[in-house]
Amino acid sequence: MPRFAANLSMMFTEWAFLDRFAAAADAGFTAVEYLFPYDHRPDEIAKRLSANGLTQVLFNLSPGDWAAGERGFAACPGRQAAFRDTVATAFPYIVATNVRRIHAMSGCADPTDPKLRDLYLENLCWAADILARHDVELLIEPINPRDMPGYFLRDFDLAGEILSAAARSNLRLQFDIYHRQVLRGDVATALRELMPLIGHIQIAGVPQRHEPDLGELNYAFLFGEIDRLNYLGFIGCEYRPRAGTIEGLGWLRRMTR
Ligand SMILES: O=C(O)C(=O)[C@H](O)CO
Ligand SMILES: [Mg+2]
């Protein structure tokens, strides 16, 4: 059975952000991920990780002004300086948390514009080369447009093209099974084909994005496939609990007993 990381942006939201670390550890998690740490000091987060014996698996570069609709800058025209700033901003958090994987959001832009594909590629290569010196992977994640209208990276084929054009061993795919199912389906075959590119996996039930025990996907089967494909990383539990985080953890107990 794969190892699971609690996503503290979606789970344990009954607690204040910094208290979610202890709550996740008390619930049996040994690893966490979240979208953004930037509202808190790096040393505060590091303290919560070490006090609770948790591994930090992943977080994102800053998306910019989320409330104003910004979703990262990697593919956004005229925002190259802003993108580079997000890498600088992430560094104290990378060092403090010892995270090995960072997700760069593409932002909202037109994916059919070849100039923007070139810009995206250039920005990703620039950031990946800097992160490589610190032994950190940079990830890109196709996100479905129902959840994030206008998002540039909304296609697994485009992600594959970008990764192969970049040819950077530390630039990899964040394979969110929820988004894959909404965008294209054919999850097991895609996992098989894309496994050499995958740096991180996330899960949720489809279509409601609740626990992975209800909906159109058979996660028991998919976890078996992921094991069979020798995926050694964590799986991020990036779902919105149906009725309370703790109450909803029955799926994890059943799968891991
Ligand atoms: O939405 C997702 O699936 C993510 O993993 C992103 O990090 C942020 O939206
Ligand atoms: Mg995701």
From TrEMBL:
The keyword Magnesium does not apply. Coiled coil: none annotated. Keywords: Isomerase. The keyword Protein biosynthesis does not apply. One of its GO terms (molecular function) is isomerase activity. It is an enzyme of class 5 (isomerase). Signal peptide: none annotated. InterPro entries: HPT_OtnI_isomerases, HyI-like, Sugar_Epim/Isomerase, Xyl_isomerase-like_sf, Xyl_isomerase-like_TIM-brl. Residues 21-254 form the Xylose isomerase-like TIM barrel domain. Its EC number is 5.3.1.35. It comes from the Bacteria. Belongs to the hyi family. PANTHER family: HYDROXYPYRUVATE ISOMERASE-RELATED (PTHR43489:SF6), ISOMERASE (PTHR43489). This is 2-oxo-tetronate isomerase. The lineage of its organism: Bacteria, Pseudomonadati, Pseudomonadota, Alphaproteobacteria, Rhodospirillales. The gene is otnI.
